[in-house]
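Minutes, project check-in
Item: structure for the 112-residue chain
Input as provided by the requester:
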Amino acid sequence: QVQLVESGGGLVQSGGSLRLSCVASRSIASIYAMGWYRQAPGKQRELVARITNTGLTTYGDSVKGRCTISRDNAKNTIWLQMNSLKPDDTAVYYCNIFAGAWGQGTLVTVSS
């Protein structure tokens, strides 16, 4: 089964930016869609962004206009660029293969 490894999380001040990366252990070229989800303490996991193998993107309402998801099949990698971060964006961010594997998560903490 493919393994997903996220990186790029950390502590950032409100208004700052972070770029998350997710590297897969095998080729993602044939994978229909990959995405980012997040889970804050006491809350359900929610979609942040998703990208298909044709480049079609979907964003959660809470991050529209502030985040950009991208994908490079040759590098087996997807990224999530997050700008204008808010304290409400504090969560563990998970990389996901549509209907498949999950990464271990990377913590993003936004201070006010």
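Outcome recorded: The CA atoms of residues 14 and 86 lie 5 Å apart.
No further action items on this chain.
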